[in-house]
Amino acid sequence: MKPATNNLKLFAGVVHTESDGVTGPGYIKIVEPRRGTMVNALCKSDSTVNTTELKLTNNEYHMVEGTAHRGAENVAVAGETKDTISTEANAFVYLK
Model's pTM, two decimal places? Predict the structure, then answer.
């Protein structure tokens, strides 16, 4: 299920790589948001390491460059400099 505007502030974490490709019904492993935890996450942003703030967005699986929008809070900081703005791709991020 993709995030919805009403629950963007309730970030539960990122799916662990052990659960890549898992289809339901079933269980998946979640990396809980702990400050500074580095994870590989789906992003769509022109990101600069330790500078670009990332957030969730309505009805999308990927993170985007963070700005205050519809109550969404920034949930991560870019862990690498990478341009994924035209095509979403995995990138390292630090959870907040």
Answer: 0.82
